[in-house]
Design brief:
It contains 14 helices and 2 strands; from the N terminus they run ααααααααββαααααα. By secondary structure, the chain is mainly alpha-helical. Helix 5 packs antiparallel against helix 6, helix 6 packs parallel to helix 10 and helix 8 packs parallel to helix 10. It is globular and about 60 Å long.
């Protein structure tokens, strides 16, 4: 399925346009950029990819801000440039874990591209019957076009693009059966890998790690996790043509996401995030059970308030 450029992609088509937009409308970007770039240039010292990745990061950030974030006429609660900020901080923290020195320079480059580009598109619709999400397909096509445009010396090779594609397509999250009856749950990396044999063990670890970082909100402090879940709910509610049940979302659906669908599949992801998720698990299980038991006629805003109040009380008492 082809997803062509939109007006945002055409408006922010170059590094100069991206910097002009960010400097004029998003001056706080300089803080995250400085933090990321000082880390990135050191951890990929001597890599020929540095210039291309840096420009792609800036352009993707500008597009995300303008299309989905604080500069958008329809800003999203969760999938905004602030989500990129969170993922970049997680990525940097991963690089400080024991064993992270085994990741090659191209790995940190592709992980950066993933963090900044895998959510670029959030409003794609098509008649596609496949299981890979339209947004993920469109986001990969956009970053692929951008790389082709700015990578004049082809330092990002085809095998790198294939790995980035695995990361982004694999970040599709859900559960069900494909047309052949194969069952999938959570992100799709493992499912996609069943059909290809050209990725080595490091490539697989990198793809799993990308998706682990993306869903590691389950491991952050309880208050921040709760806010992220509320942001996701509000975003879905804002774009939905029908009312979304808060009781269903924060009850059964949250329990299914937290305990059944979300899993850490990379070695570094498990090392970095498993303990935090385990710490949150009993409290999330309890609040999910309490919400399921609420009056079915309770207004959505009252369910959200109940959820938030319970979490706040748990944070105070712990």
């Amino acid at each position: 399925m082809n997803f062509p450029p939109d007006l945002i992609e055409e408006r922010v088509a170059s590094i100069d346009q991206a910097w002009e937009l960010l400097n004029n409308k998003q001056p706080q970007f300089n803080k995250i950029y400085t933090t990321w770039y000082s880390w990135y240039k050191e951890i990929t010292l001597g890599s020929a990819m540095q210039g291309v990745v840096s420009d792609a990061f800036v352009i993707s950030y500008a597009r995300m801000s303008l299309r989905n974030g604080s500069l958008s006429i329809n800003p999203r609660n969760y999938h905004s440039e602030q989500h990129i900020d969170e993922l970049i901080h997680r990525l940097i923290s991963i690089s400080q874990m024991p064993g992270s020195d085994s990741i090659p320079a191209y790995g940190w480059s592709l992980l950066t591209l993933f963090m900044s580009s895998h959510d670029l598109r959030q409003s794609e619709h098509s008649r596609n019957e496949g299981i890979i999400g339209n947004n993920e397909q469109a986001s990969y096509q956009e970053i692929s076009r951008l790389i082709s445009q700015i990578d004049k010396h082809a330092v990002i090779r085809q095998e790198h693009k294939e790995l980035l594609k695995l990361m982004i397509h694999g970040s599709t999250f859900g559960e069900g059966k494909d047309v052949s009856g194969n069952i999938y749950q959570g992100n799709l990396v493992k499912y996609i890998l069943e059909g290809v044999g050209y990725f080595d063990s490091m490539d697989k670890e990198l793809a799993y790690l990308a998706c682990d970082i993306d869903t590691a909100n389950v491991a952050i402090d309880l208050s921040s996790y709760a806010q992220s879940s509320i942001d996701v709910y509000n975003e879905i509610q804002n774009i939905s043509k029908k009312e979304i049940s808060a009781q269903m979302f924060f009850g059964n659906q949250q329990q299914q996401y937290f305990f059944e669908s979300q899993k850490f599949n990379s070695q570094l992801g498990m090392q970095a995030f498993a303990q935090g998720k385990s710490r949150n698990s009993p409290k999330i299980k309890k609040i999910c059970q309490l919400i399921v038991q609420l009056d079915k006629n309770m207004a959505n805003e009252d369910v959200v308030e109940y959820y938030q109040s319970y979490i706040n009380a748990q944070c105070i008492s712990s």
